[in-house]
Specification:
7-stranded mixed beta sheet; mainly beta; 123 residues; globular
Length: 123
């Protein structure tokens, strides 16, 4: 499984950004895909996840109501729409895949990881 994240950049507080993760290498019907993030000096944390087969989603409390996650099964991509961005959303964002489809917030459940994409929110 290969995961390729893109879409990061520098935005002002209150603005929006959309990240995309292109997935390849396997049929993803049993998988869940997720976004995690890691700020400087902090541990990697869960942001959102989506079960490929049903579209079921889960979100961290810190992003509920501001972020949405979606998948395009035809293009094998997962997107993270980030609205009302705050300075504390600044981090490197990683795409990850769990072949068991758990949508878990525990990063240990995710076997595959993409490279990160930097998101910087200026206040």
């Amino acid at each position: 499984v290969q995961l390729q994240a893109s879409g990061g950049g520098l935005v002002q507080s209150g603005h929006s950004l959309r990240l995309s993760c292109a997935a390849s290498g396997r049929p993803f019907s049993t998988y869940s895909l997720a976004w995690f993030r890691q700020a400087p000096g902090k541990e990697r944390e869960f942001v959102a996840s989506i079960r490929w087969s049903t579209g079921y989603t889960a979100f961290a409390d810190s992003v509920k109501g501001r972020f949405t996650i979606s998948r395009d099964t035809a293009k094998n991509t997962v997107s993270l729409q980030m609205n009302s961005l705050k300075a504390e959303d600044t981090a490197v964002y990683y795409c990850a895949a769990d072949r068991h489809g758990s949508t878990s917030a525990d990063l240990r459940n995710y076997e595959y990881w993409g490279q990160g994409t930097q998101v910087t929110v200026s206040s």
